Amino acid sequence: MSALVPLIVGLPLLGAAVTLVFGRSPRLQMLVSAATLTAVSIIAAVLLVAVDADSSPIAVSVGGWPVPFGIVLYVDRFAALLVLVSSIVLLAVLLFSIGQGAADGVQETPISIFNPSYLILAAGVFDAFIAGDLFNLYVGFEILLVASYVLITLGSTESRIRTGAVYIVVSLVSSILFLAAIAMIYGAVGTVNMAQLTERVAQLPQETQLVLHLLLVVAFGIKAAVFPVSFWLPDSYPTAPAPVTAVFAGLLTKVGVYALIRTETQLFAENSIDTLLMIVALATMVIGVLGAVAQAELKRILSFTLVSHVGYMIFGLAIVTEEAIGATVYYIVHHIVVQTTLFLAVGLIERRAGSTSILRVRGLMKAAPLLAVLYFVPAINLGGLPPFSGFIGKFGLFSAAADVGTPLMIVLIFGGILTSLLTLYALMRAWNLAFWREDDAADDVDGRVSYLGSAPAADEQGRTRRIPAIMTVATGGMVAVTLVLTVFAGPLYAICDRIGVGLLQPVSLVQVGEEVDG
């Protein structure tokens, strides 16, 4: 089983090399990319079943180098689950991009560039999830960021170059902070292996722990788009091509959240900043969703809701109980799938209506009833209506907070409920204007939403484009996955509960049972 672990990262890198060599054969590139992500999905599923059944993680020393000198790949339930979900999402978005590229040519998603960059991005995401030491986690971040720099500027339009520059600068600042933290940690304890850090960091003075702790939290908070360092996201994501925006929204911030969870539950379990995290979580939820309410463009609405719902994950992390961590993991899985699905649906709306401004799009209920369903289902799911997975995840978080019962927890519960209601309002307002409003309605916007007339990024009406069947199938498949999260919530939530228990247990130094040359 250990031999499968390096393939999680190795296969996407190998696939990227193959697609780069065969840059003039788009069909071969597509086939290699799809086959690679399918293989990773199967491997992740096998590893998840194995580690869940054995209740013990799999650790592999790549190249046979001993700890702490070598690279250790570490797969526990948490890592395996996120690799599985991420690979499924990446595969669905890839199919969507294939349809878009086939319909539009190379203007939006140049296949010769897109496929290698996309697989490198996937390798970086997977590497971050299974990294067994901080430096390898940093390498995973840098791999996915380098690929994301290419993907976010595809098409080389003025707006994409401008927002891409902001994204690059912010990412570089975060990476510098992360690298500085790694250097300081190594200087303090002589290792960056996470299992060893669990034992050695606790022996440092509390003041030293706090400095190292806060430095990592800020670095990961920027990557996760946690308030007040979330300013970059709503302007960066909406300008990218639809498949790029979808995969960024679904995955990249979750890599930052994943790193925060590892930091809080394993590295600095004895150095609590829970109160600070609670305040940050509340601010992220409320300010993010207020930004969404003030938008007139669907991608910006979703970008602000993305920020606000990261707040739920920080909320669960700040509670620091097994139940709360389990609910947080479930909510991460839910949000990866649902947020990606919504961005894909908005990509279809843009093609069908020529715009994503809710002030201009109208009459889609009659013109495209299937598209109405593809948007409506994940929208009410993200809003937290029962019995969908969004409601299940939020109920788990609120229940864990109520068990703690402190006044700040009660405030957070009310903040979470308010965020959920405003999310539902923003998404359903978009639904009413874009789908229910008649095509021959007056050009003037209803007075109740006239304040949106001056909202940013309400772009001009563009041309409508044909929606290839594969794009609809990919989006429909993701909608089906969101429903699977609800139908099979019991078994999935049970796995997440076991993840919560495992993350809060003391971690001893991992002994690598099998060495893999690499």
Overall description:
This protein is mostly helical and 518 residues long. Helix content is 72%, strand content 3%. It is built from 19 helices and 3 strands. Strands 2-1-3 form a 3-stranded mixed β-sheet. Helix 5 packs antiparallel against helix 6 and helix 10 packs antiparallel against helix 13. It starts with 6 loop residues before the first helix and ends with a strand. The C terminus is likely disordered.
Instruction: Name the structural class.
Output: mainly alpha
Mean pLDDT: 87
The neighbouring-strand order within the major sheet is: 2-1-3
- Using the CA coordinates, give the radius of gyration: 22 Å
Low-confidence stretches: 508-518
Number of helical segments with 4 or more residues:
19
Element order: H for helix, E for strand:
HHEEHHHHHHHHHHHHHHHHHE
Q: Which outline best applies?
A: globular
Strand content: under 5%
Give the end-to-end Cα distance, rounded to a whole number of Å.
Answer: 16 Å
How many β strands by DSSP? 3
Classify the helix fraction into a percent range. Answer: over 70%
Descriptive terms for the model:
single chain, 3 strands, disordered C terminus, 518 residues, mainly alpha, globular, three-stranded mixed sheet
Structure, briefly:
This protein has 518 residues and is an all-alpha fold. It has helices at residues 7-21, 26-54, 77-104, 111-130, 134-152, 158-189, 194-200, 206-224, 233-236, 242-267, 274-293, 298-319, 322-353, 364-367, 369-382, 389-404, 407-436, 469-487, 489-503; strands at residues 58-62, 71-75, 514-516. The longest helix is centred in the middle third of the chain and has 32 residues, at 158-189.
